[in-house]
Design brief:
heterodimer; A: 315 residues; mainly alpha; MetI-like fold; globular; B: 530 residues; alpha/beta; 6-stranded mixed β-sheet; 35% helix
Chain lengths: 315, 530
């Protein structure tokens, strides 16, 4: 297990280095002057030169890369050109919204998907199964922004349970913050939960055909016990894969939902930074997201090994 | 102790069992013999009430006067594992891969509320020790993938007997195991019956296995019991023609004509195949596993050479090396004057000369191809497809005794024996000189196996083929080969003519193998040959 962990950590580090090189290359090295690009077509040459200087574009490629990475490692991502504040500050603010939202949505998705998937698998071919399959099909098909708008109409406009959008920050207490994130989290979680439940169902059904399920039944376990004690953990591997992909998506892919609910999240930050040509912000946020994705994959790998001893290699 | 009266079973309306009646006495070993599809496993599953969906059973299964067919599912759950234990054929898949063996044995006790978790683990350790897996050698926290097939089957037995059930059902418990492991597992089961006083229902297709084990034998065919009697009586009398047919098929000797000539066809010289073991050491030598160590032999034209050994001894690795699918780390393989090298492109002419038939008649065909395309596929080895492609395919089909119109059908429409004929047709279509038969009849029932052996003997005589016949089944090797090699741990430990090796084995390992193979006592056999 120790060697397994060491190998995974090594691969994590290498992936991060590779990703940082690619991001740096795409944004700073590929032909075209970032400073000129940021200032637009009709920029004053002096302003471009000043910006180049500010961005440190005059050094060699290697020294610029090292400077960027060195700064990033110490939490210094430079200064945003449009906001005129340190990028780290921007990211920190936005992560306070996006991080909790992603985790919230993921938890909801798991809490919905597991019972639903298990019920469908254990009642295969019965009305409950058909009902769940139809509902999850719908959950996947309906666009989440449309569903988000429905939620706003019902719970904010009609019932006044929550506000229609915006985020009050965490200063008002945990509850206030979570309340503001509830509708977006539900809107994000529903399609994810539908996918997850279907994956879990089919994975469980596959496992239930295995010989060891028959062995368990021959020991005297009931159907339900067999499902919970033997099938579930074996059926978890594909579910973990999907879960990892979903978390990465939730972190960065919530742009539309953030827009529907006026949430100041990472998605909106990067979207605005791109439209305003603020490459410093783009570069850093993309790196952060890549870091998050790689970290999630690492966690999923560890989870695989916990779920399935065969993946831990030799003792 | 357990009585089955007129058990009739259908699944989705198809009749599976018809009026099956049998009685298993206390502390008795009852052998249930039949070919695949005869209904023996379904009888066992009916006793456990673990039948597939859509199954309807009628009749009575009485366990101490309780009719199991009338019990509720909850009552059955209470009874399974406690009164009746069961072990299955496939030790590789019968255990949950993500839970430790101790945990899985203890679960039998826990699920019946017979012990606390701590006590259950202590009992699990005792039971595992009883089946030959003492905790000092095989700790409770091992996972199934860390054990061999024989060890896994022992774990299956331990969890089935953990609560000392009155009846243990063993469904082909040794079919997937090597002869030596089979002998050990059978001895273990026999010992358990004597010690624990439980009854054993032993289901098998192998008459020799029941001959050595059972007190009472029933023979099943097409869902019916055709004959049952005390073991010795059944073997010596054999009242039913089907029983006799099974018996004869089990040691069938095809008519062979010696076609071997002294011209060498394939020669293997000091072949060596190493695998790197997992694990990285930056310094020092990487650990290697020698699958094939310094193996040399020759196959002459028209000769049938047997290669026997247990699983993992390197026989399949060797056959893959001969086919040019595995690189060698030492030595060389020469086929008809040309060296076989893996990794470099093998000349089509060379590849054409050797073809292979594998064990699994289900997994070795693409299900979406027509039979004629499956058989015709090797034609891509020719520079241009033959003008008479259809004719050649028909010829191959005729050679293996299949109707020529089956070329338009798909592989799932055929039985296991027919598929194996088609596999042989595919190997023959290019008129090879050497056919490698890698456990080619091991998955087949005895009567089908006898037919395929006849076919192979006939083809060899007619088409001047050389065979490399790889098998763990000594009876089959004896029936079809001129010479035999015995392989152990990557080495050839004995080589000689088949008769020599079987009648006067020199190496202790060969003797162990021959001794381990179950035999029907000679005295019982004579009466039929007379």
């Amino acid at each position: 297990m120790t060697r397994f962990l060491a190998m995974r950590l090594l691969s994590l580090t290498l992936s991060l280095v590779a990703a940082s090189v690619v991001i740096f290359a795409v944004i700073e090295v590929i032909p075209g002057d970032p400073a000129a690009y940021m200032l637009g077509l009709n920029a004053d040459p002096d302003a471009v030169a000043a910006l180049r200087d500010e961005l440190g574009l005059n050094g060699s490629v290697l020294s610029r890369y090292l400077h960027w990475i060195g700064g990033a490692l110490q939490g210094d991502f430079g200064q945003s050109y449009t906001y005129r504040v340190p990028v780290s500050e921007l990211i920190l603010q936005r992560t306070q919204v996006s991080g909790p939202l992603a985790i919230y949505a993921l938890l909801l998705s798991v809490l919905i998907a597991f019972p639903v998937g298990i019920i469908a698998a254990s009642r295969r071919g019965k009305p409950a199964d058909y009902g769940i399959m139809a509902a999850t099909q719908l959950g996947i098909a309906v666009p989440n922004f449309w569903f988000a708008m429905l939620l706003v109409l019902v719970f904010a406009v009609k019932l006044h349970w929550v506000s229609a959008g915006g985020f009050p920050g965490w200063d008002g207490g945990l509850f206030t913050g979570l309340k503001a994130l509830t509708l977006p989290a539900i809107a994000l979680a529903l399609p994810q939960a539908s996918i997850l439940a279907r994956v879990l169902r089919s994975s469980l059904l596959d496992t239930l055909h295995q010989d060891y399920i028959r062995t368990a039944r021959a020991k005297g376990l009931s159907r339900r016990q067999t499902l919970m004690r033997h099938a579930l953990r074996n059926g978890l591997i594909p579910v973990l894969t999907i879960l990892g992909l979903q978390f990465s998506f939730l972190l960065a892919g919530a742009i539309i939902i953030e827009n529907v609910f006026f949430l100041p999240g990472l998605g909106r930050l990067i979207f605005q930074a791109i439209t305003q040509r603020d490459l410093i912000v783009v570069e850093s946020v993309v790196m952060l997201l890549v870091f998050a994705v790689i970290l999630v994959n690492f966690t999923v790998d560890i989870a695989y090994a916990i779920a399935d001893p065969r993946l831990r290699r030799h003792r | 102790m357990i009585e089955i009266h007129d058990l009739t079973l259908d699944i989705h309306g198809t009749g599976i069992l018809h009026d099956v009646s049998l009685t298993i006495g206390a502390a008795e070993v009852f052998g249930l013999v039949g070919e695949s599809g005869s209904g023996k496993s379904m009888t066992a599953l009916a006793m456990m009430r673990l039948l597939p969906e859509g199954a309807r059973a009628s009749g009575q299964i009485l366990l101490n006067d309780t009719n199991l067919l009338a019990l509720s599912e909850a009552e059955m759950c209470d009874l399974r594992g406690r009164e009746i234990g069961m072990i299955f054929q496939e030790p590789m898949t019968a255990l949950n891969p993500v839970r430790t063996i101790g945990d899985q044995v203890a679960e039998t006790l826990l699920v019946h509320g017979r012990a606390s978790r701590k006590e259950a683990l202590v009992i699990a350790a005792e039971k595992l020790a009883r089946v030959g897996l003492p905790p000092e050698d095989v700790p409770l926290d091992r996972y199934p993938h860390e054990l061999s097939g024989g060890q896994r089957q022992r774990v299956s037995i331990a969890l089935a007997i953990a609560l000392r059930p009155r009846l243990l059902i063993a469904d082909e418990p040794t079919t997937a195991l090597d002869v030596t492991t089979q002998a050990q597992i059978l001895a273990l089961l026999k010992g358990l019956v004597a010690e624990e006083g439980m009854s054993l229902l032993l289901i098998t297709h192998d008459l020799a296995v029941v001959a050595g084990m059972a007190d009472h034998v029933a023979v099943m065919q097409n869902g019916k019991i055709v004959e049952q009697a005390p073991t010795e009586q059944l073997f010596t009398q054999m009242k039913q023609p089907y029983t006799r047919q099974l018996f004869e098929a089990s040691h069938h000797q095809p008519d062979r004509r010696v076609t071997a000539r002294s011209e060498p066809l394939l020669s293997v010289e000091n072949a060596q195949r190493n695998y790197r073991l997992p694990g990285i050491s930056l310094f020092g030598k990487t650990p290697v596993f020698q699958a094939v160590k310094d193996v040399s032999f020759t196959i002459c034209k028209g000769e049938s050479l047997g290669l026997v050994g247990e699983s993992g001894c390197g026989k399949s690795t060797l056959s893959r090396a001969i086919l040019g699918l595995e690189p060698l780390q030492g030595g060389r393989i020469v086929m008809d004057g040309k060296e076989v090298q893996a990794g470099v492109h093998m000349p089509a002419e060379l590849r054409r000369k050797m073809q292979v038939v594998f064990q699994d008649p289900y997994g070795s065909f693409d299900p979406r191809w027509k039979v004629s395309d499956l058989i015709g596929e090797p034609f891509h080895l020719l520079e241009a497809p033959p003008q008479n492609r259809e004719e050649r395919i028909c010829e191959a089909l005729e050679n293996v005794g299949m109707p020529i119109d089956c070329g338009d059908r798909y592989i799932h429409e055929f039985s296991g024996g027919q598929r194996q004929r088609i596999a042989i047709a595919r190997a023959l279509v290019l008129h090879p000189e050497l056919v490698i038969l890698d456990e080619a009849v091991s998955a087949l029932d005895v009567s089908i196996r006898a037919q395929i052996l006849d076919l192979l003997a006939d083809l060899q005589a007619r088409l001047d083929l050389a065979y490399l016949f790889i098998s763990h089944d000594l009876n089959v090797v004896k029936a079809i080969t001129d010479r035999v090699l015995v392989m152990k741990a990557g080495e050839i430990v004995e080589a000689g003519t088949t008769q020599q090796v079987f009648d006067a084995p020199q190496h202790p390992y060969t003797r162990t193998l021959l001794k381990a193979a179950p035999q029907i006592p000679r005295a019982w056999r004579k009466e039929h040959h007379a």
